[in-house]
Amino acid sequence: MGWELVQLEPRPRGEAATPPAPLQFGMPVYLTHSSKEYLTLIPTIDENPVEALARIEVGHWGVKLTALSHDVRVKPKFPKFLTAHDPTSEEYHLSVASDGRSESIFLREGDSVFLSKATTCVKLAWNPSQVQVDSSLPVPEIPESDQANLCEEETEDDDDGDLDRTPLAPKRSGSTPANSVPHSVVQETPTADRLSSTLGYRKVSAQNTSPSDEKPLQLPILSCPTDVAQNDTATGAFSTASSKPVKEDTGPEGIQETPPAAKETPLEPSADMVIDDVQDDDNEDSTPDSTAARELKSILQSTAVSASRRSTKQPQRSTKSPKVQIPAKSSAKKRKSEADDESDGSRKRKKRATLDIQGTPKGTRSSQGSVQADGDESGSYEGPKPRVAFSNSGITPTSAVMKFLKKQGGIPVESVKGESCNILCVRDGALRKSMKLLLCVAHGIPIVTDAWLVKSAQQSRLLPLDSFKPSVPDQEKEWNFLLDAIWGKPQNIFTNYSIYFTPSLKAIYKPFSDIEEVCKEAGARRVLSKAAKDVKDKETKEMIILSLGEDSVDEDSTALMQKGLVCYSKDFLTLSILRGQLDLNSEEFRIKAPVVEPPKKRGRPRKS
Hints:
InterPro entries: BRCT_dom, BRCT_dom_sf, DDR_Transcriptional_Reg
Helix content: 25-40%
Number of helices: 14
Radius of gyration: 39 Å
Number of domains: 4
Mean pLDDT: 68
GO cellular component, one term: nucleus
Strand content: 5-15%
Region (Disordered): 150-197, 236-394
Organism: Pleomassaria siparia CBS 279.74
Keywords: DNA damage, Nucleus
Number of strands: 19
Distance between the termini: 80 Å
């Protein structure tokens, strides 16, 4: 539950409705103009903006509204009319801040806030929370995803998390924990005979055989075609004659291709097996052995198809899957045709079998590693250790890309003063003339969008900065500046000048030390603010005077202009830094001096 600001109609045509802006306890909200064409109100929570019209604060005492650079009108939810014949309703007026003093009022639920040059207004609303008991609600199923969102917050505090790891689908809690080892049946020789008889194979008598002569059932591996050719020389699948042991082949990850049959025999085949490598011969004799082999193959095919469908939705298990073997073909003609087929496509099928054996995490790491190895060295970040600050950014401190930045040796910082910062990250979209942005432009710090960190995390390396400059063509046209011309270049446009702020303008910037830092970073030798009567004539040399502007009443600027001094509006400071040039002769920001009427003469006019 909490307070929130709701923007009311009308709004510009084609512009989407602004969602309610929640108010946080102890964090001020500033109301500014979103553009020059349409005067709408937007809440700014990031930093103290340069063009602040009013400020809203929330505390244990309630919600307080303070007028800054414009007059503010407040209408209650249920206004009281003064009289039955007077249509004027109840309304409260707050004057613009001057001489370091400002007017404030405590708001109530449903109060509407209006400004003199705004086409819309904001309304204060209370949003109660809806409490629900978790036990009475069904637990929603979490959708499975093969890729993790890099900008999504994570609950883990481990900075060394592996970003290349493919996340597994979360499991719902249950009363009985799942087994860590898959179910399997350890079978002896008599049990194996019983299982083979169930599938249609002939029973082999184990009588008159010593334990040393008993051999486990060995069948060729389905996923590796080369094993079939090795077992073709056997006299039969159920022969008790001695034969050469099958050589165990290990894949690139060290997984054995042919586990002994005396080990665990699974009841259900793995989904990683490739069954298409075994071909049926229509001309083969319909013997009991061949009939049973076809039945076994059909069972394995149906099981593998169902398992492959499940594997498309879930990531692969990291556990090793045992292999299933089938009897080798006894026909010489069959063996010859299979050998020819295997020699033609053995390389292609072997590659597919290797991919099936490898796990998803290792495959992902190898693919990303190849991208990094193949990338050009000139396409990587070159410079000092990144010290990244964030202004109006969508990256949270606990996101995965922040962990990636720390793993690459980067440091997230809060301040941009001095040498503490060398990169500024902003949200993709329109720029806000915040203190951090102006400081970075004046200091020559490169400004990039959040996509720089996101793409760098995907490539597992820091990418060049100049490929991720903010694209703001509309603001470049409106503010008459070029971002490429000032990007990464210090702007010392106020060299040998002192900058004077009227007390009314100083009250807008809180804290004032931030705007002082901006001016000094842009080359100003001195920043001062005092009453106009205290300004000495020798101080006015090489001094730039900034005031609220013609739309607001500023007695100090009026007094200075009566002395013949030139005053500029507050936009002169910000846009001069963004444009990278100082034009004191331009009429764009110069405030016109008020026309002083001569005093009227006393007495009656003389008769002619």
